[in-house]
Amino acid sequence: xxxxxxxxxxxxxxxxxxxxxxxxxxxxxxxxxxxxxxxxxxxxxxxxxxxxxxxxxxxxxxxxxxxxxxxxxxxxxxxxxxxxxxxxxxxxxxxxxxxxxxxxxxxxxxxxxxxxxxxxxx
Length: 122
Known about the structure:
single chain; mainly beta; 1 helix; 50% strand; globular
């Protein structure tokens, strides 16, 4: 079992920054592929970014150049640095983990955090 705890959300003005954290415990973190998803009110859950166990990253087009996903193996934590935030980034953000990257990419990963609210005001 892997437990994921999300933190770091909040209210920020457009153009501001936030850093989300996803702390993992329970298993060998290094073997897991990780991702961040978000879900806005009335919308489907959307993949934001992923980072493989080897450090390869992927970003959805709307956040490229503004968001950065990273992982700290020693701290068993994955981060999502969000810069130049826009009102359309407002959503609940969830981290996900799985030993198989394709399940992180398609949203069917085994493990999920509880979510953290990000609100961007205009």
